[in-house]
Fold these 3 entries.
Entry 1:
Amino acid sequence: MTDKPSYAELERRIVALEMELEKRNERDRGIIQTLTEDFEQLADRSQDGIYQYDIESRTFPFFNKAFLELFSLEIQGVRVLSPKSVLVHIHPDDLSMVRSAQKASLEPGSSGGEIEYRFLHPDGSIRWMHDRWTVLRNASGQAMTIEGVIRDNTLRKQAEQEIMQAMRNALIGSYLVQKGKFLYVNREFVRISAYSENELIGTDPLRIVRDDFREFVREHAVRMLKGLENTPYEFCVVDRKGETKWVMESVTPIMYRGNRAVLGYFMDITKNKRAEEDRKEKEKLQAVLELAGAVGHELNNPLQVVLTCSQKLGAKPAEDPLRQQLLNLLQKNIQKIVEITRKFQGITQYATKEYVRGKRIIDIHAASRMSH
């Protein structure tokens, strides 16, 4: 049998074990301390304000330098950070909105919140801050701590305002699309589409595109957004009155309110298209007139010879009735050719008619009638 250790031996082992545990705890505390110091140094190097707020004590157990500089108050040469000093720096017109967002985040089931508000900066300027936070809860679900990050979004906000200002003042139609829906349309876009702003906001941009152009628009817009093409594309839209209009469009990707968006420019080219169609119509007419002149000129001389010969042949009645019948038929059709030639020379308008297999040909008779 193995002898049981004596009381003194047990006591010695317990002391040794306690010393080993103390060494481990000391080592762990050193690691934790090092990690804490590293985290604090990293947090202090951040340009964003980082904070931890204890709900019960209404204090900030942790905050970095950026948060302290932004939200503290200097009282008798000492920087003081408190819930009151934080609220003092929030624009008075945004206080109610901020408080409502914070209150909502503390409701059961909520894990946090975010909000953007105007900030009264210590240097006297007004800046835009974006505050995003997480609510930590105990086992029973009670909110205990708030941990958050505050970022200065002033430059982004100014860029967004400049974009909106440029869109409002644009002489052509412009719009903003985010998550596949209209987010903003300017007055010229409203005029072109004949829809009101309220009727457009939140709807699919393709709704006003004529059905036969939708796939074309989708394809070219995607290619332009990917940088694969930079030439504006033309297509037809149907306005609120049911009228078809030709437009020319270009799109570009941007960031708006922290998310990807599409900025589009939209120009009504209906008048230009109609002018182009008129030009093509005039070119067709010119071609018809030139063709008619050429045909008339080329046919006139041989036609006169044929006409003269037929008249001489018909001067005396033919003995053979069939021969006389054929001669009369020849003279009748020669006269028709003369009339058609005259119509060629009198064409001043362009007209066509249906031919075989879906083709169209020049309607000489209609074009000649239109000229009189």
Entry 2:
Amino acid sequence: MRTLRLELGNDDRFGPDNLPYGVFAPAGGEFRTGVRFGSAVLDLAALLDDSTFAQPDLNAFLAQGPVRWHTVRQRLRDLVRGPLPASVIHPLDSVSLRLPVAIGDYVDFYASIDHATRLGRFLRPGGAPLLPNWRHLPVGYHGRAGSVVVSGTPVIRPRGQLRTDSGAPEFAPSRRLDIEAELGFVVGAGSEPGTPIAVDDVGAHIFGVALVNDWSARDIQAWESQPLGPFLAKSFATTMSAWITPLAALESARVPLPDQSPEPLPYLRGRRDWGLDIDLRVHWNGHEVSTPPYRSMYWSPAQMLAHLTVNGAAVRPGDLFASGTISGPERRQSGSFIELSGNGSEPIEVGGEARTFLADGDSVTITATAPGPAGARIALGEVSGHVLTARRC
């Protein structure tokens, strides 16, 4: 059996301390689970001789729970440090990628106080930017799981009802197409109906994280969202990275939560409240336009999952919940173009061109890094997409 030792550069952020999971197909082959190591994908079914990883999604592995996740991760960290069978190694640029999980339910939150405050000032000028409930619970809504697509999938500009100057609606393509740079959390082990997940127990249920772009049609949203919230403005496309970074890879990225005032109700308080020190970068047509910091998020992933299940709602392996737009206190740290452009009133420069919202043909790529062990950094798999012209109805 021919073996190879994969050598990584000193600055490679997909080394043994990362090892994100994805689902890939080699040329002419079937989809199966792989782990990214440097610029290669390792076939886990072949490497570990385990049929669990020969399936076209990660759900069966996720359902096996945290002890199994830990065992596999430790085995992989040992294996990648030595020679590997050449037959299990596939160059990243030679494979096809798909969504790594079969998503049963998708929930999107609104967990950034800086984003919620800026958006509230646009929506309620002269009024309180935050609604009375915002500091008491993680606000969220149920999204459309069937509209979650893998990174690289084109996004067709949505059509919908837009409010006109007369106050009556027209049916037209969105003119204010936007992004939302988010962090998604993938559920591993599920829960039983009627059994809430406690804040301190989320480690047994959250498998890992993936970058998310929850595309948003702001003009459709402005007309339709009263009184029930987002609908067509969000359900046309949500893009998820092809790679899920295990939560275990982010131990060095844990940071204290920002001060929460008033103190949350007891079911939202834990013994070890934590956020994540993850730095995002948003690239518009290849130009970096913003640097959202996840560490400034008000509500933690543990609080979001605890709130999601406190009424007895169950979660299943592969379910996805996302943070909502990640924004920091500075305008340059905004995770949406509505914020960056001051609600469209202050165009920003993108490659020498003044821009507010997305035009047909535009592309957006979101990347992120986080602290790893011993002062190194790891990278999350990027999420990207480009905009296509609206289809005729």
Entry 3:
Amino acid sequence: MFTTEFLITSLIVVLIPGTGVVFTVSTGLAHGRRASLFASLGCTLGIVPHLLATVLGLAAVMHTSAMAFQLLKYAGVAYLLYLAVATWRDRSAFAVQPMQANGNALGLVVKAFLLNILNPKLTIFFLAFLPQFVQPGAHSPVLQLVGLSGAFMAMTFGVFLLYGLLAHAFRKSVIESPRVQAWLRRSFAAAFAGLGTQLAMSER
């Protein structure tokens, strides 16, 4: 079940920069290691509904229902554009101060969770991706899908956390340069806007 092909393909998919990676990196730069942990956790939890939809067969409904797909897609577009505007307008400087309030941690998890749950392309992706690695004639295909989903989630969390920790490693040089801060903020805002536009133009 956990073939080399599955593990390599999953790793490549997770490594490709997307909304979750952009959010985790920006969080690691702005708030540090602990914050990147919560961002990674939220992004990972955000793919759970998509994986459940695949395992339970609900993804087939999403694939055939244009209305359901469009509604979720434009909710995701609106959220990405909101993040782009909020990031662009944020003029506060990155500061080295550890997170202490539980509310901030929960807010980061929720933000990251919404990023992934509002992307209908993930449901379609998992519908096409996971079944390929279920062994033919398996006694319990559902259990295999659950196992594959768990492995993919673990890989997602690990890779995203690594992205966040790498961002934290470069944090000092970023904090010491207002020019770099401004450039990064504009880059993150543009990335969120670009990903939102890409999602808006996507078809099933």
